[in-house]
């Protein structure tokens, strides 16, 4: 492919903007790119049934669309206030001829994690792929500003949900199934303002590696994807992200810009597809715009 065919990706400076958490993709100035027009589907996930948490927006939405294009039926979870984003994802998938079931609720609650898995099995006929992608992030300048409640919320959403979802899904997964989780470069970079969030991402990396050992005999692979900055609602809805920081979002990466969701999503196809990655389990795959690991 020549350079002529490369899609231009948005670069900083971006419009200054701020939303309440969770952010709504529809309200973002400069819409994230999630349709992956250069991507050629090859039927890699035909007949597979996938649950994608946080599939309403950002990375999860781009993954849901690619999975549908590869032949999978999908269920996505979202928070009630994200209904418009979730419905848009569903419409896009149905327009492709795919199936998308919407499940609304709070993943920081164990009961909802179980419900999300059970509803996926009921509506799609089973579960072969779990993408544990939802997360909560709220930057704070000082440890004194992180309340116990906030610390709890971050761990419950990012780590506990991953545990509860995996525990509920595994008994229903056949050999060849796959669990994929969204980690982050913050898991190793440990930025100053993200004490709780980056700690959850560190926990996710280790949980992934350990779960991969535990499930290898069942033929279930477990992997993580660790992106650098990605243009999604997450950062514009982080009240600790100054408006001026949103303006420069991704500028410090060697590539000079944030990733778009459509650039991150193909890794989730790769890790879900037995044809591509049957010998890969327990890895944390970085996607960091040339930032050295
Ligand atoms: P996003 O806001 O589009 O997606 C996050 C989703 O998490 C939301 O859509 C929401 O549905 C869900 N969520 C949050 N709290 C929840 C709760 N209590 N119950 C149920 N759902 C809840 O943003 P995104 O950037 O696409 O985030 C997806 C993943 O990517 C997250 O794990 C995030 O940590 C990770 N990540 C993002 C970046 C980035 O720069 N955007 C970088 C590295 C990793
Ligand atoms: Mg959302």
Protein model, in words:
Helices cover 38% and strands 12% of the residues. It is built from eleven helices and seven strands. Strand 4, helix 4 and strand 5 form a beta-alpha-beta unit. It has a single domain, classed as Rossmann fold (3-Layer(aba) Sandwich). The structure holds nicotinamide-adenine-dinucleotide and magnesium ion. The site of magnesium ion has 6 residues, from loops.
Q: Approximately how much helix is present in the residues?
A: 25-40%
CATH superfamily: NAD(P)-binding Rossmann-like Domain
Overall, the morphology is globular
CATH class: Alpha Beta
Largest beta sheet, briefly? 7 strands, parallel
Q: How many helix segments?
A: 11
Distance between the termini: 28 Å
Quaternary class: single chain
Question: What number of domains?
Answer: 1
Radius of gyration: 18 Å
- CATH architecture, by name, is 3-Layer(aba) Sandwich
Strand order across the biggest sheet? Answer: 3-2-1-4-5-6-7
- Predict the CATH topology: Rossmann fold
Give me the strand/helix succession. Answer: EHEHEHEHEHHEHHHHHE
Q: Which regions have little confidence, pLDDT < 50, spanning 5+ residues?
A: none
User: What's the total count of β strands?
Assistant: 7
Ligand identities: nicotinamide-adenine-dinucleotide, magnesium ion
Instruction: Tell me the strand percentage band.
Output: 5-15%
Q: Mean pLDDT, rounded to whole units? A: 96
Structural class given helices, strands, pairing?
alpha/beta
């Amino acid at each position: 492919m020549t350079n002529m065919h490369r899609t231009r990706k948005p670069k900083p400076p971006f419009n200054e903007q701020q939303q309440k958490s969770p952010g709504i993709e529809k309200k973002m100035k400069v819409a994230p790119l999630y349709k992956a027009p250069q991507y050629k589907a090859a039927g890699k996930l035909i007949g597979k049934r996938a649950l994608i948490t946080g599939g309403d927006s950002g990375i999860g939405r781009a993954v849901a669309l690619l999975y549908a294009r590869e032949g999978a039926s999908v269920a996505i979870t979202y928070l009630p206030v994200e209904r418009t984003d979730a419905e848009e994802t569903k419409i896009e998938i149905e327009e492709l001829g795919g199936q998308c079931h919407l499940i609304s609720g709070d993943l920081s609650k164990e009961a909802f994690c179980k419900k999300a898995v059970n509803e996926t099995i009921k509506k799609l006929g089973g579960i072969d792929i779990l993408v544990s992608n939802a997360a909560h992030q709220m930057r704070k300048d000082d440890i004194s500003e992180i309340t116990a409640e906030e610390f709890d919320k971050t761990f419950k959403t990012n780590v506990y949900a991953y545990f509860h979802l995996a525990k509920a899904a595994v008994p229903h997964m056949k050999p060849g199934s796959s669990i994929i989780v969204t980690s982050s470069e913050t898991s190793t970079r440990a930025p100053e303002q993200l004490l709780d969030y980056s700690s959850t991402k560190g926990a996710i990396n280790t949980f992934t590696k350990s779960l991969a050992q535990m499930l290898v005999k069942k033929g279930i692979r477990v992997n993580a994807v660790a992106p650098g900055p990605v243009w999604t609602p997450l950062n514009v809805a982080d009240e600790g992200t100054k408006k001026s920081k949103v303006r420069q979002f991704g500028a410090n990466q060697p590539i000079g810009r944030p990733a778009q969701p459509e650039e991150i999503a193909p890794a989730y196809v790769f890790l879900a597809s037995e044809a591509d990655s049957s010998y890969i389990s327990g890895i944390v795959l970085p996607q960091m715009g040339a930032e050295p690991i």
